Amino acid sequence: MQGIYSHIFYPSTLNELLNLKNKNPDAVVWSGGTGLMGKQKRKIPVIPDNIIQISKISELKKIRRTERYLEIGAGASINKILNVGQHVLPNALAQAMKLIKPSTIRNMATLGGHLCMPDKRLNLFSVMILMDVSLELKRAGGARWIQLTRFFNKNGKIQLKNNEILTRIRIPFGNWNWELFKSDGNPFFDTGQAISFCILAEIQKGIINDYRMVIGNSGKHTVRNIEMESLLIGKKLPLSLKESSFIVEKYKEWIKSQTMELTPFQRDRTIRFIYWILKELLP
To answer: What does 187-253 look like in DSSP terms, one character per residue?
Structure first.
């Protein structure tokens, strides 16, 4: 029974953690607990029967940079990532991280915990889904890397085996020189209204060489249409009024069809966002 009395393990090394998870596959890995506790409104919160507390494991808090990517330990707090990686973090990701408030929450919340929410794709996930991010999943005696796009199946179920732990997040450095992240509402509580938008673009000599956009709906999925993105790739800036009007109409058709993924409120906000973005690209 879930309740006040829980068995809590406190491993101090990564190997100890992996062995504990192997022996206790149903145990919940816990660092700051902001995701698990933040959505509860009870005076006495419900906590899992078995918890593996990872806050003492230094290996999971490391952040390093190479020429090609930024690699972040799954146990690194959001504030630590902002402080250590402030000059190399993609701008859209930094924007999304700074919107996690208050600062005391950013001190406790970890990137791994943010990505591993079983029933929600939170704002940082929406940003990183566009960045070709890969994840290291470890178990006692083995490890594998997978793309973030494959971390959840089509039904929104997390693709972690019972004895696996998310240990590292690898963010490649892109050529993005136009980045934007915006969000509205609380994804924990305003499930029908909370929404986020992220756009990454590479623009060289006035030509859009790459363009990516994702909509976060606070549920188990994000909403993205690569065919819609292709409407802008190769376009010369500034867009003409005719080009902009055509793209808006195509987007409106697609967004209105997303009745399973977006609420009427979210569809309306998305159309308004598209108008605003294209106005930014007009003469």
So the answer is: TTT-TTT-EEEEEEEEEETTEEEEEEEEEE-SSS-EE--HHHHHTTTTPBSSPPHHHHHHHHHHHHH
